[in-house]
Amino acid sequence: MKTRFRGGRLLLAIAATALALQATAQSSGTNSPYSRYGFGILNDEAMGFNKGMAGVAMGMRDPNIINRQNPASYSEMDSLRFLFDVGVSLQTSRLRESGRTVNANNSTLDYLAAAFRLRKDLGFSLGLRPLTTIGYDFNSTTDMADLDGLGAQTTTSTYSGNGGLHELYGGLGWQPLKGVSIGGDVKYIWGDYSHSSSVTYSETSIQTLRRSYSGRINSLNFDIGVQAYRKIGKKDRIVVGATYAFGHMVNQSATFINTQNNTSSTSSADTVTLKNAFRLPSSGGIGISWNHDYQWTVGLDYTLQRWSRCKFPELRERGGTTRYIVGNGSFQDRHRIAAGVEFVPNPRGLKVRDHICYRAGVAYSTPYAKVNGEKGPKSFLVSAGAAFPIVNRYTSHSVLNVSAQWEHMQASTTGALKEDYLRLCVGLTFSARWFEQWKVR
User: Fold this and answer.
1) Cβ-count burial of 290 within 10 angstroms (0-12 exposed, 13-18 middle, 19+ buried)?
2) How far is CA 263 from CA 203, 208, 266, 383, in A?
3) What is the pTM of this model?
């Protein structure tokens, strides 16, 4: 008996992943002014199988999915199959503040991932995703009184920024005992950011003020996961899962440039560079799922990210002097709770419609970044979706996942910017028999 592995297709999948790195790095994905703060807007961790369930994942375990939110799940991989999963989102947003409304549209590559089993009870997964996103460009105009006898003036403040962080991971999941799995991921995090703000006046003799902030991050990180699962009777199974990601200092620099100039020449330009400017958060999560007769699945997750211990470069007023320092007061701990349900009409049916999987979920999360010293926007999310089997002569396990999400974000301060998002998320899980056996007769 001999095992045959179609390695050419694996290399093709890896090449596609590598080519997507650039596309991921260039994806804007947001127009939110809230992305001015911290590392930007935190992107959704969910994949196609759980976007419709609001991202429930800690206790999810199935041989036909890639659950990178808990690496212990990799040990469930089918011995004969190779999974390749890709997801994209189309998003429309509505931003409202002080009676003004702005609409915007974005599209993003959400993730790429692959997984297969290395040996009995040992699975492997590789993938990438955008971790945070920065993208905004707005301005405001204010009328000023005549304070110097030169007449009334108009001042215009302009703000813009772009960038974000990205994550490439590789991990193993191992089942050392029946009913218990452990796993871990090694993650390479990289990216940069650029923010700028300027103040100009209608009177050209008044100096223009411009500030720019930039930084770059390259770092390794690690996380671990565990799952314990047990059958209850003949038709029910409960899975309890937990994860932990390690926080650490990042030995990278950040730069601040303060410029004053008029129409004729630059008056002054001060540059400050800070070393060891960043600290990434530790985080932990716990969740549980219950499955009844392969038909109903219900899950609940809670995660905590310790952003209050992180450091980030910022401007601070001390004794009437503005200084650019590495501070730790810009963030707060982030809590997220999510619940989701999944239903398959007839898991043992012979018709395709019997295996369409219907999903729904809700999630609530607190902010990690502060906005002008106050708490940032809270998030409330509602999602629903379905998974459609793709059946052909090559495979009966590939799935098209389609989900819709509505998310509302708003800070608790009076008159704060309100943001509403409507997303269409599409994911394709390609499953093929790449590991086959010859029969010797």
Assistant:
1) middle
2) 10, 9, 8, 52
3) 0.88
pLDDT value of residue 435: 54
Q: Please report which helix (H) or strand (E) contains residue 225, including its range.
A: strand 208-232
Nearest to 380 by CA among 407, 345, 417, 351: 407
Q: What is the DSSP letter of 366?
A: -
Write out pLDDT tens, residues 379-405.
999 999 999 998 765 556 789 999 999
282 close to 306: Cβ distance less than 8 angstroms: yes
Distance CA 408, CA 362 (A): 12
Pairwise CA distance, residues 195 & 36, whole Å: 7
Distance CA 302, CA 49 (A): 18
Distance CA 307, CA 279 (A): 9
Q: Kind and range of the H or E element at 57?
A: none
**What is the residue-wise DSSP string for 79-108?**
TT-EEEEEEEEEEEEEEEETTEEEEEEEEE
